[in-house]
Amino acid sequence: MRRSLRTFGNGGVFGFTGWFHNSRLGRYRAWVTDPRKAIVLEFENETVVVSPGHPHLFVDELRERTGVEATVEAAEA
Questions:
Q1: Distance from C-alpha of 70 to C-alpha of 4, rounded to nearest angstrom
Q2: What's the CA gap between 20 and 18, in Å, rounded?
Q3: Side-chain-side CA neighbours of residue 60 (13 Å)
Q4: Predicted confidence (pLDDT) per residue in 2-49, tens digit
Q5: In the prediction, which pLDDT does 77 show?
Q6: What Rg do the C-alpha atoms of the chain give, in angstroms?
Q7: What is the dihedral of CA 55, 73, 4, 62, to 10 degrees?
Q8: Are 35 and 16 in contact (CB under 8 A)?
């Protein structure tokens, strides 16, 4: 979420929620309480950033339930 511009939402002590924009992701929606655990979900019409408690377990569950190949990489959203 670094270098992101909040276009509509909340960006404070307890988390980041709402609509944001940056050069890497473009326009995206976020529900993030811990930016260090951020997961980027790219859909056909929307990009969403969330921060699950256990990112690797979240991605494993996502793979299992959807059959969609997902990758985990350490990167700044």
A1: 24
A2: 7
A3: 4
A4: 788 788 888 778 888 899 999 989 999 999 999 899 999 988 899 999
A5: 46
A6: 12
A7: -40
A8: yes
